[in-house]
Design brief:
With about 325 residues, the chain is α/β, with parallel strands linked by helices. The chain has one domain: TIM Barrel (Alpha-Beta Barrel), CATH 3.20.20. Helices cover about 40% and strands about 15% of the residues. It has helices spanning about 1-15, 15-30, 65-70, 115-125, 145-155, 180-200, 220-230, 265-280, 295-305, 315-320, 320-330; strands at about 40-45, 45-50, 50-55, 75-80, 95, 100-105, 130-135, 160-165, 210, 235-240, 260, 285-290, 310. The strands form three sheets. It has an eight-stranded parallel β-barrel, surrounded by four helices. The protein has a three-stranded antiparallel beta sheet with strand order 5-6-11. Helix 5 (about 145-155) runs parallel beside helix 6 (about 180-200), helix 8 runs parallel beside helix 9 and helix 9 crosses helix 11 (about 320-330). The longest helix is centred in the middle third of the chain and has 22 residues, at about 180-200. The two termini are about 25 Å apart.
Length: about 325
């Protein structure tokens, strides 16, 4: 952790996206100084060495799986990947708000496309739980979104421990409309039916997980929970980034478009997680993400009903030592 504190001022002096790329290249070296915590957890029919995972978005193209594994994660989620390669939104598209330990990003699912992405997955040595996060291409109209998700699921299925259906990024126009009751029901019905066929084809059942936004009202949470139960979805990630700017008003970059992550969304994200836990009553696995920057934050997610947690922005502000810190905290509960 102290080594990262020494490096952080240099990283923060760089353009945020350039620093992001440099940190990815340095992740393998950072892993040398991390301590893996064994705290086995079983969820979705899978065994996790510990309950702390890497959230999707940091390794969009599955190029750094082994480097992140070296940091001691109990599971790794890569993507979001779309059927076809796309550049994402124009730069600048990543902004730090260090006064509040927050980030705003509007990457827009920039990725190499599912075929090149899976080449990277196959090249990795990591044999632990691997989640593959899938989305739709930006130029696919909303009424054809299910086609993109189905194409990505079919390709990713043999290589994934679980597949996450990302319907909550604020950076692809119209994507969040897929969280609406009718749209979500149609999408999940399509993917659940496809999963049934893929079980027969590959001889294994890969869990399906849905990732939702923190900007949901009580009625939306009720409708989503009902759809997850109806279509036998295995897990829920609560939550993605927020379109709210509560807690960062007036700061430089606060008015930039994109999703807000980090400390300011902890309470909002954990509240959504807790509401899903109350509705779903243990019927599927809950993964807590959003605003975890300390062991106490991770404990809050577990106490709210999560079985697993994921880190993203916390790694930017606290460094790789946060992984073991959170894994130990979850074990101590």
């Amino acid at each position: 952790m102290s080594l990262y504190r020494l490096a952080r001022p240099f990283l923060f002096s760089l353009d945020a996206e350039n620093a992001h790329q440099l940190a990815l290249r340095a992740a393998r070296l950072a892993g040398i100084f991390s301590v893996a915590v064994k705290n086995p957890v079983r969820a979705m029919g899978l065994e996790f060495p510990n309950p702390v995972g890497l959230a999707a978005g940091l390794d969009k193209n599955a190029e750094h799986i082994d480097a992140f594994a070296a940091l001691g994660f109990g599971f790794i989620e890569v993507g979001t990947v779309t059927p076809r390669a796309q550049p994402g939104n124009p730069r600048p598209r990543l902004f730090r708000l260090p006064e509040k330990e927050a980030i705003i990003n509007r990457f827009g699912f920039n990725n190499v496309g599912v075929d090149a992405f899976l080449d990277n997955v196959r090249a990795a040595r990591w044999k632990g739980p691997l989640g593959i996060n899938i989305g739709k291409n930006a130029d696919t109209p909303p009424e054809r979104a299910a086609d993109d998700y189905a194409a990505a699921l079919e390709r990713a299925y043999p290589h994934a421990s679980y597949v996450t259906i990302n319907i909550s990024s604020p950076n692809t126009k119209g994507l969040r409309t897929l969280q609406e009751a009718q749209s979500l029901d149609l999408l999940l019905a399509r993917l659940a039916a496809l999963r049934t066929a893929l079980i027969e084809k590959h001889g294994k059942r890969v869990p399906l997980v849905v990732k939702v936004a923190p900007d949901l009202g009580a009625d939306e949470i009720r409708d989503i929970a009902d759809a997850l139960r109806r279509h036998r979805i295995d897990g829920l990630i609560a939550t993605n980034t927020s379109i709210s700017r509560e807690g960062v008003e007036g700061l430089r970059y606060a008015n930039e478009a994109g999703g807000l992550s980090g400390a300011p969304i902890l309470a909002r994200s954990t509240s959504v997680l807790r509401q899903f836990a109350q509705r779903l009553k243990g019927e599927l696995a809950l993964i807590g993400a959003g605003g975890i920057l300390s062991a106490e934050d991770a404990r809050q997610k577990i106490e709210a009903g999560a079985t697993l947690v994921q880190l993203y922005t916390g790694l930017v502000y606290r460094g790789p030592g946060l992984v073991a810190e959170c894994a130990s905290a979850c074990r101590a509960r």
